[in-house]
Amino acid sequence: MLFGATGYTGGRTAEVLVGRGVRPVLAGRDAARLVALGERLGCPTATADVTDVASVSALVGPDDVLVTTVGPFARLGGAALAAVVSAGATYLDSTGEPPFVREVFELQGPAAERSGARLLTAFGHDYVPGVLAGALALREAGDRAARVDVGYFLSGRGRWFSRGTVTSLIAIAGTPGYTLRHGTLRTENAGARLRTYEVDGRPRPGVSIGGVEQFALPRLHPGLGTVDVHLGWFGAQGDGSRRSPAGRVGLSGVVHATSRLPAPPAPLLAGLARLAGRLPRDPSAEALARCRSHVVAEVFDAYGTLLARTRLTAPDPYALTADLLAWGAARALAHGVTGVGALDPVGAFGLDALVEGAASAGLTTWDLRATRSAQSTSGTCSGNRP
Asked: What's the rounded mean pLDDT across residues 354-373?
């Protein structure tokens, strides 16, 4: 079952699912739009309100797989999640919102373990590539691994973002983030720390955020004490290659500095949300055609020595999200997943299967080779000591 098919990301996900031979039930409130889409794709439809637990529960059973792309998840995602947990079903979503990810793992995960539900949150560009890159680098690094840094970057110019992406970013503005330090998940503001990575031979700065990696990677390597995730979507929609080094660091530095300011007032956020509602629903097709996603994972020992590095590249983030959601849903439907509760991609499917899934999602250009190095990190850090 797919919620959000009449939206941009959901529509792309529906098309990929059909291309994989899966005919999902397209569910939502707008029956007329759903029927038209269902007729075009050859999919059944169902009328339901994704924000109403009873409405979703009436359609979901324990053997079902529910996929939702309806955000902002902090405001609209709770009902579908609760319905799946109650039914003991399988759940995947496209969120990139750290507060929602944390809710899934810390609050809904224990309830899902009791009901037998399988929860795979943020199963798209955010944050499957970082989990995959981190897992590959950890496998190469061996027992000395003590810290993992993961950075997300985009290259390309133009309006690559959708209206839904902007709305979700506004919804989580000023909300607490998190990091893993000395084996303990700690709350901190997004952007609290600044880190520079080498991407395509150039230094690219990113600011700290919460992700799935802080939950997933310690499961793969129990001795892991520190996990940091950084976001480098800054510059001309992510491409800093034509800016001076000072300009590139300056944009991330602004986010880093404002992380210490109070949360934006509610009237300001409401006004920004109204402005976002006027944006085009879809990104620029031309910009997406030029856009590439870059993910870097670096593993260090307790002394700060770089043990392994994995670099991944992928198509535009929306194509990647649709492909990964479709692969994960189809695999769960056909073969099930390992474990119950709040799961991570590697734990649910296994690392080798996830690598194959990445390739089947069109990620054949990914460099899936971890490389050992005895040198210290080449990037600069701010408040990010090993």
From this structure: 66
